[in-house]
Design a protein that fits this description.
This protein has 13 helices and 20 strands. It is globular. Helices cover 25% and strands 24% of the residues. The protein folds into two domains: 314 residues, Naphthalene 1,2-dioxygenase Alpha Subunit, Chain A, domain 1; 112 residues, Rieske Iron-sulfur Protein (3-layer Sandwich), CATH 2.102.10.10. A hairpin with a 6-residue loop joins strand 13 and strand 14. The structure holds FE2/S2 (inorganic) cluster and fe (ii) ion (FE2).
Length: 466
């Protein structure tokens, strides 16, 4: 911990700037930005969800996991893959969710379908990993289906008079697409993805995401329930303890949290960079803030000298735009300072996390690890833009990390690698500790953990539908 940081556990009450709520501080900050934020950012929807706790058994009880599988995962839109992972007709991604499994298949240049990954003879998985096929042929006895899902061959056909082609099509889940992502929904009565996404496409450009490619794709099994894992990324409250190295240039305790009452599958936080944390016990100079940002976020670069009166935040935002413009051969000068430098995170319920703007290029997806409530599959995509005039690079294949740390990974960079190690290092301890805890409920902060409260409330709503 740098010498100008204090242990805030001994100084309660310093997290919020006196007289102003965090979202007011954030809005005041961006209203003073040189490049003004768009209306979607320059708004706040403070929603008080109260002080209720969360029953800890939801995180490890197999019965609760079963309810989630039957009533939540089978009814929600889930990102199953990127379109670029299946560019050619016959390309298949296997998407597993608890005991469910789907073959996300490009059946024609413009059509993608999701077939249930189980042979209709005696149940064998048709594919065990991502592949490219002309047809689906079961490895056990050879029942075969066309790419369109039509039963096309049954060895010793004479022995199966009960099998009618019309009834033996491969069952399908619904498929829809947005931003280069392929979504599936197991519920035949599900509302369209566009309705489900609510305000998200108005806030985050689908075209922007569609233009990106998978530069890196990392998969790790985390030792905690999927909800504990995603919740670790829904609040910046943990920054003071978990990411103390970033407090010199991030305004963690003044992050804004938004819950959108008319768009219940979407939540957001906006976390300002280029200003110091209120947890820092003295006022840093603008030069010190910039130096912290360069040292930590820009991986040890030496910071330039600010001119007298110049501020770190607009300087860093302008530099981020210039660098991206030079790198991509495109003009980013119209980006707001907030979109240039802040961490603006959206979630699409239940398990997708996206960022708006230039600074955070990652996308997260969390899923239960089979039917184990004590572990989770964390997929981390690094999506990058394609430089102007250059061919779209081949997407990276998924890399199974095993026990590797994020800091050891190529291509993620020191800041993001170390940050993900910091985030994920807490999870196994939390999963174990929740079972040791005598009290029934986990305690949540009223504001900074309000997205977690909303998230758990949404799970309850799906489960309550019976
Ligand atoms: S289980 Fe698939 S052909 Fe027999
Ligand atoms: Fe974090």
């Amino acid at each position: 911990m740098a010498d100008w940081l204090v242990d805030t556990r001994t100084r309660p009450g310093t997290a919020i700037m006196p007289g102003e709520a965090p979202h007011e501080v954030y809005q005041r900050l961006i209203s003073n930005d040189e490049n003004k934020a768009p209306e979607t950012i320059a708004t706040t929807l403070p929603e008080d969800l109260g002080l209720g706790g969360i029953d800890k058994r939801r995180y490890y009880d197999p019965a609760f996991h079963r309810l989630e599988v039957e009533r939540l995962w089978t009814r929600t839109w889930q990102m199953a893959c990127r379109e670029e992972e299946i560019p050619e007709v016959g390309d298949v991604v296997v998407y597993d969710l608890a005991e469910h499994s789907f073959l996300i298949t490009r059946v024609s240049p413009d059509e993608i379908r999701a077939y249930r990954n189980a042979c209709l003879h005696r149940g064998t998985r048709l594919c065990d990993s991502d592949t490219s096929v002309r047809q689906f042929r079961c490895p056990f006895h050879g029942f075969t289906w066309s790419l369109e899902g039509q039963l096309s061959e049954v060895p010793c056909r004479w022995d199966f008079p009960q099998v009618e082609e019309a009834r033996f099509r491969l069952p399908e889940a619904k498929v829809d697409r947005w931003g280069g992502f392929v979504f599936i929904n197991m519920d035949p009565d599900a509302s369209p993805l566009a309705d489900y996404m609510g305000i998200l496409p108005d806030h985050v450009s689908g075209e922007h995401f569609a233009g990106k490619y998978i530069a890196r794709y990392f998969r790790k099994v985390l030792p905690a329930n999927w909800k504990a894992c995603i919740e670790a990324f829904l609040e910046a409250y943990h920054s003071v303890e978990t990411h103390a190295w970033s407090l010199g240039f991030t305004n963690d305790a003044n992050a804004q949290y938004d819950i959108f009452p008319d768009s219940p599958h979407v939540t957001r936080f906006m976390h300002a960079f280029g200003v110091q944390s209120p947890h820092v016990d003295r006022t840093l100079t603008e030069q010190q803030v910039l130096e912290e940002l360069f040292k930590i976020f820009w991986n040890g670069e030496a910071a330039p000298e600010l001119a007298p009166g110049e501020k770190a935040r607009p300087f860093a935002a302008a530099l981020a735009r210039q660098r991206r413009s030079a790198e991509m051969g495109r003009d980013y000068s119209h980006y707001s300072d907030a979109e240039s430098i802040d961490s603006i995170e959206y979630t699409l319920f239940p398990n997708l996390v996206l960022f708006k703007g230039l600074m955070v290029p990652t996308v997260y997806r969390f899923r239960p690890n089979g039917n184990d409530p004590d572990s989770c599959i964390f997929d981390l995509y690094l999506l990058l833009e394609v430089p102007e005039g250059e061919p779209r690079p081949e997407p990276a294949m998924v890399f199974e990390m095993g026990e590797m740390s994020y800091a050891e990974l190529p291509g993620l960079g020191h800041f993001f690698g170390t940050t993900y190690d910091q985030d994920t290092s807490n999870l196994g301890m939390q999963q174990k500790g929740m079972k040791t805890l005598l009290q029934e409920d986990l305690v949540l902060g009223r504001y900074q953990e309000s997205r977690l409260r909303h998230f758990e409330k949404m799970i309850d709503q799906y489960i309550a539908r019976g």
